[in-house]
């Protein structure tokens, strides 16, 4: 038998990722054994028997068999595979237990909101008993299993979609690459816990459980749409759909009161009592308000088009919404700091977290659909008390020029002044030709601090290339609206002083009373934070609150639909099997029921 040498230097470089405690010998996965003693069954001291499975694996790797399945651009996945095989001196990774667990994980992938192409799952299932394969077939099978695991693990950790293709979102780092080699080796031996692939956020776990709840209901509940009434239904109205409304709210686990009882006259002239199911009562309206609150609707207790649309959302519809949000959790930072600020855009809420718990919560106003608030991760660095507002060129052009042209005293009456962009000097607004096409490029509009100032009394700065920040607003009445997408992208806070009080409680340099005194003095002042506070603007339309109740919020930017479409268009698949309809819960049930239950055996 002849042998060929392996990349010894590569073995040593891979050892650094394996410096972890070793389980008992019976439980020790190959990935956690010293690289110097691995692969001895296939050749002496780091050499590979060319006629062995290991030799066939190495030859297939050289021939780019694995790359053809993973794809030409997946360098991180290829590197992980190369490390895992080199550490084992190209010995096979997969045994019977590992194959069984991988098949189960792929079958259950939709439960985590990951869609699998049927071709990938079928190819893995079709591998059969490993001990009946030739060396070449066994090598090909091992690489197929490796490719399937890596593609699935990457999708479950990082998502299958590129957030930049769907939303105004930051580029996310591949958080799986440094762990993939270790995960691959443990998966091959049947010692891997696939839940390690999920985002390490309690919110993700809660949302995944909620998905299971609605998926079960989709399989068992009959769900017929409630007919649209002729007009709005308010307390005291009678309509045939009220009975359907009562049934639907009960199905959604709300505590629905019994229908009121009324006396009716019989044909004989006697009277009897019967349930007045068509009457929309005050008690039922209160239950409807709770439903509206949980679905991000205007809370008025009236049955209108928006409320009816949410009442008619099926469990399957809600599963789809949850899947889009599970995907977005994979875009989120790997961890949130215990102390941070988080704005959930479609919930119109800003929260401050302290030691992982909500310390402050307030209403927020976010960007309208044409001027979307982006998803960002940054750090709050300083506050500006009594800020000036330097009106962006785009807002001057789209929003302010018509006001200026329509009113000769608009600038003065709203506490603005004008700057010449070339000289930086103040310009007399009466000398500016506001009707010229390029006026917004030549002059800048600035609003002085004060009651009229659009930024309110405070702005909270986390410098970024999109000029997004938090600030107050004089238009407090806008917070009374349920749907608060009114801004040009920045985030308006209902209670900016409460936010500054909380920031001061977390920072030695900032003093809460001093901030309030500065604001009261109406002088512009910059207030630095000694320790920047992480801030995240996120987009979650499905959440589970602290009491365990489901909350759904309007998809104000259409990112749910775009995310779902991208997930369906790009299921986890081998690079040579693209364009397949993904496996979802319903399609998976049929496939599982009809599959061959034979479990591959060890070689």
TrEMBL record:
Keywords: Cell shape, Cell wall biogenesis/degradation, Peptidoglycan synthesis, Signal, Transferase
Coiled coil location: none
InterPro entries linked: LD-transpeptidase_YkuD-like, LD_TPept_cat_dom, LD_TPept_scaffold_dom, Peptidoglycan-bd-like, PGBD-like_sf, PGBDSf, Transpep_catalytic_dom
Active site (record annotation): 471 (proton donor/acceptor), 490 (nucleophile)
GO MF annotation terms: carboxypeptidase activity; transferase activity
L,D-TPase catalytic domain segment(s): 339-520
Pathway listed: Cell wall biogenesis; peptidoglycan biosynthesis
CDD domains in the cross-refs: YkuD_like (cd16913)
Region spans: Disordered: 24-44, 575-603
Composition bias, Basic and acidic residues: 588-603
Listed Polar residues bias regions: 575-587
Pfam families: PG_binding_1, Scaffold, YkuD
Annotated signal peptide: 1-26
A biological process from GO: peptidoglycan biosynthetic process
Family: Belongs to the YkuD family.
Record protein name field: L,D-TPase catalytic domain-containing protein
């Amino acid at each position: 038998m002849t042998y060929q040498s392996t990349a010894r230097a590569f073995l040593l470089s891979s050892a650094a990722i394996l410096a972890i405690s070793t389980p008992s010998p019976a439980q020790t996965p190959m990935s956690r054994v010293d690289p110097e003693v691995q692969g001895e069954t296939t050749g002496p001291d780091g050499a590979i028997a060319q006629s062995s499975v290991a030799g066939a694996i190495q030859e297939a790797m050289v021939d780019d068999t694995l790359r053809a399945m993973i794809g030409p651009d997946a360098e991180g996945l290829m590197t992980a595979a190369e490390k895992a095989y080199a550490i084992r001196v190209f010995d096979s990774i997969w045994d019977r237990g590992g194959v069984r667990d991988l098949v189960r994980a792929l079958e259950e992938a939709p439960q985590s909101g990951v869609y699998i192409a049927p071709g990938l799952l079928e190819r893995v299932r079709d591998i059969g008993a490993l001990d009946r394969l030739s060396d070449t077939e066994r090598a090909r099978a091992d690489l197929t299993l490796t490719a399937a695991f890596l593609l699935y693990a990457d999708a479950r950790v990082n998502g299958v979609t590129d957030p930049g293709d769907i939303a105004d979102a930051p580029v996310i780092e591949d958080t799986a690459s440094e762990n993939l080699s270790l995960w691959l080796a443990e998966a091959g031996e049947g010692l891997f816990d696939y839940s390690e692939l999920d985002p390490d956020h309690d919110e993700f776990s809660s949302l995944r459980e909620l998905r299971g709840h609605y998926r079960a209901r989709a399989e068992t509940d009959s769900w017929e749409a409630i007919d649209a009434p002729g007009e709005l239904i308010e307390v005291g109205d009678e309509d045939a759909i009220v009975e359907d409304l009562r049934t639907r709210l009960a199905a959604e686990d709300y505590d629905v009161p019994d229908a009121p009882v009324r006396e009716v006259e019989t044909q004989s002239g006697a009277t009897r009592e019967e349930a007045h199911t068509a009457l929309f009562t005050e008690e039922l309206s209160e239950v409807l308000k709770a439903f509206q609150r949980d679905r991000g609707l205007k809370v008025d207790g009236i049955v209108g088009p928006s409320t009816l649309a949410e009442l008619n959302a099926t469990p399957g519809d809600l599963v789809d919404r949850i899947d889009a949000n599970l995907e977005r959790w994979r875009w989120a930072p790997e961890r949130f700091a215990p102390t941070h600020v988080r704005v959930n855009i479609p919930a119109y809420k800003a929260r401050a977290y302290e030691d992982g718990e909500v310390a402050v919560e307030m209403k927020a106003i976010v960007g309208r659909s044409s001027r979307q608030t982006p998803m960002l991760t940054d750090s709050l660095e300083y506050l500006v008390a009594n800020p000036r507002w330097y009106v962006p060129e785009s807002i001057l052009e789209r929003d302010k020029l018509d006001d200026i042209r329509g009113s000769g005293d608009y600038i003065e009456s709203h506490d603005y002044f004008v700057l010449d962009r070339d000289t930086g000097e103040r310009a007399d607004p009466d000398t500016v030709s506001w009707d010229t096409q390029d006026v917004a490029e030549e002059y800048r509009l600035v609003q002085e601090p004060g009651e009229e100032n659009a930024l309110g009394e405070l702005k909270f700065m986390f410098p970024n290339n999109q000029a997004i920040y938090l600030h107050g607003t004089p238009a407090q009445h806008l917070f009374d609206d349920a749907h608060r997408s009114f801004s040009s992208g920045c985030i308006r806070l209902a209670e900016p002083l409460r936010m500054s009080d909380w920031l001061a409680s977390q920072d030695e340099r900032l003093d809460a009373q001093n901030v309030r005194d500065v604001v009261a003095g109406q002088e512009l002042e910059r207030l630095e934070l000694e320790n920047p506070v992480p801030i995240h603007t996120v987009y979650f339309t499905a959440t589970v609150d602290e009491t365990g109740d489901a909350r759904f919020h309007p998809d104000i930017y259409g990112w749910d639909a775009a995310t779902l479409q991208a997930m369906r268009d790009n299921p986890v698949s081998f690079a040579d099997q693209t364009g397949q309809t993904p496996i979802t819960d319903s399609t998976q049930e049929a496939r599982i029921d009809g599959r061959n239950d034979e479990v591959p055996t060890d070689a």
